[in-house]
Amino acid sequence: MVLVSAARDYVNRMLQDISGMKVLILDSHTVSTVSVVYSQSELLQKEVFLVELIESTSLSRESMSHLKAVYFLQPTSENIQHLRRQLASPRFGEYHLFFSNILKDTQIHILADSDELEVVQQVQEFYADFVAVDPYHFTLNIPSNHTYMLPAVVDPGNLQHFCDRVVDGIAAVFLAMKRRPIIRYQRTSDVAKRIAQETSKLMYQQESGLFDFRRTEISPLLLVLDRSDDPVTPLLNQWTYQAMVHELIGIQDNKVDLRSLGKFPKDQEEVVLSSEQDSFFKSNMYENFGDIGMNIKRLVDEFQQAAKSNQNIQTIEDMAKFVDNYPEYRKMHGNISKHVTLVTEMSKIVEERKLMLVSQTEQELACNGGQVAAFEAVTNLLNNENISDIDRLRLVMLYALRYEKESPVQLMQLFNKLASRSPKYKPGLVQFLLKQAGVDKRTGDLYGNRDFLNIARNMARGLKGVENVYTQHQPLLFQTMESITKGRLRDVDYPCIGNHFQQGRPQEVVIFIVGGTTYEESRCVALQNATNSGTRFVLGGSVVLNSKRFLKDLEEAQRIARSSTSVV
Amino acid sequence: MPWKSVRAPTSSSTSTSSGGPVIELANTSLLNPNRSYAPLSTEDPGNSSKGALTVGLPPAWVDVSEEISANVQRARVKMAELSKAHAKALMPSFGDGKEDQRLIEALTQEITGLIRKSEKKLQRLSATGPSEDSNVRKNVQGQDGVDIEMNLNGNKSRVEDDDLDDMVFNEHQLAKLKKSEALSVEREREIQQVVESVNELAQIMKDLSVLVIDQGTVVDRIDYNIQNVATTVEEGLKQLQKVLS
Predict the structure, then answer these.
(1) Alpha helix (H) ranges present in chain B?
(2) Which end of chain A is more exposed for a tag (fewer CB within 10 A), N or C?
């Protein structure tokens, strides 16, 4: 909640003190930041009658001096160049500049120099350099996400760029929350360590004045993790509403684009899934597929009742009531069509890809034991004609991650079968994954088979039986959060940067996963926060993953790694 | 800052309560010579002190937008008067209440006229040729449309016939019969009027509903609207290039 309200607050402050008609100019990143927390109609109420991207503003020549320009940009060099040109020949009456992160002194000088006509009224830093998709979940939408998988020597420039972006994003989050954290990172990950160190340098040395907030009793915690520590979660198929939509169709900045699935009426081509704006979604986003179906049916029934009473218009009073209720009625109608469409399309996909069958095996690979049974199940599915290539790949990957060290012969057999069955399979991809995220690379106890306590816990769970075999998996994050709330996060595995150390249990924790988060994990965080354990968690990542994105990053990293070794 | 612009009548935006109108109402603070309020400094060329930059005048359609707001304001005042007149008409009184009826009719006509005028002006806003600020115009149009729609909801057809006087038959039946005939003809006329105004209402609502944004849908998303603008601008550019080459 805190990040959504911080971002909204910033936008409000940008607009409120400027009277008259305004134009809001954004760049391709801040447009995402603003779009998830502010709606077009709210902008109109604040008299913002035009919204443009800074690239298009450069192209146009028409002067609109009756408008006051409000710029909200990331402080990148491209944006500064655009601004320079626009300030030199201003189109608007006044210029109010807001930046989403810390401006360098040189950049301020450049702007001041180019403002010859003195049209700039104010320059401020409003630290909303992240996309707050849900109350406790943010993302940075980094396009070249695969960079985190590559060792530094392969492409140091790109890796530096990636790390800078992550550090800036994390810094903005803490500036927005007005906190300075203790920083811990995952020991086995070089990139996590690097990001942790650079963040610490920024917060405690370079900009220590800016971050010098009122100290609370117990400092908040920033924990930097690597996606490779839990490669299982992004590979699994999902059955809870939000995660499932992202896995099967894809959610970007809380928008779902249905056009790839077929022809839809104009107003259902793209839909919005935002817990802030849609109360049905808010109460169902973490429910499983079966329950959603029932809840939608109930919603449709309620709607039909309302529709029936609307048909029954006899008197003028009825008409008046109808006109009064019409906006609500229309909104409900649109909302219901949206959910019904989504669930219908997802059911179709589940049916086509036989996902219930596949997912059963996936969950067993992720949760339970039995190598022999697992091998058999995977082999059968590989032989099954109806299973799609991507599902076969995921199954083999999940098997490989689990039984990496057991029975290498059978593992090899699976690789060969996969290669022969899937013509588009990039050979060696599974092995590449194992190199990235195999058991030797992982810190956390992914399968609960390292320490005694976890083994016992798994056995207990197995005996108790599971409520729903499709949602039995719990991401590693769950255990990590538990350790934090109990104050038992091991220093050996998650060391601290610098000589700060954690006194007591932290009350605010930001967990950043380098390589991306998943909606299954953000669900885990939201449910954890709902238990009011005294610790509040916020989850963030470089992107929000689904299996398609995760595999794409993997393929891209493999391609680059290969081409670089061939050069060397 | 050498000057500070004072905000004109503060927005009396009512916060949306659950179940109330989905779209909020806000008074625009555009300057209007017909209203009287505290003096404020308008943008004058002198404000950008040393620069040679001249602050141009807003384009003509801004005036149209202001006129619409003025009309909406006037309509609202009239509606308040109308409800008072209704209340007065419903109270028992001496005399035949014809005066009140006429007043009510006149007020209703005025209000409908104002709303229709505003609607026509709103259409004009989109009629002027394509240009860069068409997006600004469209957005202003949408906002004004919302204002008008809010007023329509207030101005439900109040021409309720409450003059269904008891038809009392007494000894002078013939005379009374003639009178009641005249009455029923008049009532028929009034009912016709009711039907007409309801139809007008329906028409106006239909026209306005196209302009108003549904909250929570993708049309209400800033990034969606930017995308569309970008495509339209690109298209426009392509067309221009075609013409010029």
Answers:
(1) 60-90, 98-127, 134-154, 173-211, 222-244
(2) C
Q: What is the DSSP string of A312-374?
A: ---SHHHHHHHHHHHHHHHHHHHHHHHHHHHHHHHHHHHHHTTHHHHHHHHHHHHH---HHHH
Domain boundaries along the sequence of chain A: 3-128, 133-230+475-559, 241-353, 354-437
For the domain covering A3-128, report its CATH number.
Answer: 3.40.50.2060
Q: Which of A28, A39, A121, A331 should we substitute to test contact with B (largest number of B Cβ atoms within 10 Å)?
A: A39
Rg (CA), chain A: 26
Interface check for B45 against chain A (CB to CB < 8 A): the answer is: no
B166 inside domain: no
For residue A19, give the nearest of B5, B19, B26 by CB distance.
B5
- Cβ–Cβ under 8 Å, residues A546 and A250: yes
What kind of fold does domain A133-230+475-559 have according to CATH?
Answer: Rossmann fold (3.40.50)
A124 touches B: beta carbon within 8 Å:
no
Q: Do B56 and A63 touch (CB under 8 A)?
A: yes
* Nearest one of A567, A319, A156, A60 to B202, comparing CA atoms: A319
Split into its structural domains, chain B has a count of 1
- Would residue B175 count as lying in a domain? yes
- Within 221-240 of B, beta carbons closer than 8 Å to A belong to 221-226, 229-230, 233, 237
Contact (CB, 8 A) for A136 and A168: no
Q: What is the homologous superfamily of the domain A241-353 according to CATH?
A: Sec1/Munc18 (SM) protein, domain 3a (3.90.830.10)
Type of residue numbered A155: D
Alpha carbons A398 and A502: distance in angstroms, whole number? 36
Do the domains at A3-128 and A133-230+475-559 have one common CATH topology? yes
Average pLDDT over every residue of B141-145: 66
Q: Dig out the tokens for B29 from the structure.
A: 């603070």
Question: How do residues A433-486 score in pLDDT, each as one tens digit?
Answer: 988 888 888 877 788 766 666 666 666 666 666 667 788 899 999 999 999 998
A481-530: per-residue pLDDT in tens? 999 998 888 888 999 998 777 667 889 999 999 999 999 999 999 999 99
Residue B214: which of A32, A269, A334 has the nearest Cβ? A334
B7, B51, B56 ranked by CB distance to A19: nearest: B7
Taking the CA of residue B139 and the nearest CA in chain A, the distance in Å comes to 6
Q: Are strands A251-252 and A255-257 parallel, antiparallel or unpaired?
A: antiparallel
Contacts of A401 (CB under 8 A, 6+ apart): A231, A232, A433, A434, A437, A438, A446
